[in-house]
Amino acid sequence: MPELPEVETICKNLRYGTPEFPSLVGSTVDNAQVFWARSLATPAVGDFLTRLPGQVVRGIKRRGKFIICNLSQDALLVHLRMSGDLRVEAQASPLAPHDRWMVDFTNGLRLVFNDARKFGRLWLVNDPQSIIGGLGPEPLDEAFTASLLHQRLHASRRQIKPLLMDQHFLAGMGNIYTDEALHRARLNPLMLSSQVSEEEASRLWAAIRWVLEEGIRRNGASIDWVYRGGGFQNIFCVYKRAGLACPVCGTAIQRMVVGQRGTYYCPVCQPNHRR
DNA sequence: ACGAGCGCCTGTCGGC
DNA sequence: TGCCGACAGGCGCTCG
Question: 3-state class of A90 per DSSP?
């Protein structure tokens, strides 16, 4: 579910606070509770519960789709996967269905992880690199240039869509933003990465940056019952729009399956010339 | 070095 | 109304 812009939005709320709650930064952990043990990837629950109390939140950042909460000793890493969500609230608030774990702070704040599908994961580690070390470039970093993208595309011969969604190739793209970026760049999702020209790579680079930046500007996309408040879904060109008119040319958007994922594209704007 | 299939889970929606 | 399959923002595994 959440892709880079949704994760960034959640991160910002934790880091800077919201109208309702202040930033988590500076808070000291009082205690933690785990309601669904499999949400915790590492360490074992007992370790987790004893290591956390007393640690202070030093900072909160994002890498790809990971939320990294730097503590005085360790780092807390959260991956939301398909349906995960993090919220801050007062400790008097009632728990909600699907709450999987929570951390209470000595200042009365509570961080809660809600995850209907139970795919989300949490790690408490000394070295975050052990978890996120294999991630590809950060798409909004200055270091991620059009020529780097072109070069990396030519390093493999894969269908472009699954490659863009491979977190080792590029960190943060998911199903929605990939479909939107490919449409904006006028590239067919099945196109082989090694056949993307320099000009096409340049278009794709600009499209990736645009959809991610616009997604962040609009606080992500709200699709289901989670991630309320985002607005990116209002400007989808292709995603979940099968049968509707392409906003560029008016042709009916089509759906196909690529790499086991529902894939939306315009057959006219994104023709499949080469395979 | 690839892609396909599947497991992990719960909820929603459309068709019959 | 109720049941049943398809599908959903992700990712790691095995198997050709």
Answer: strand
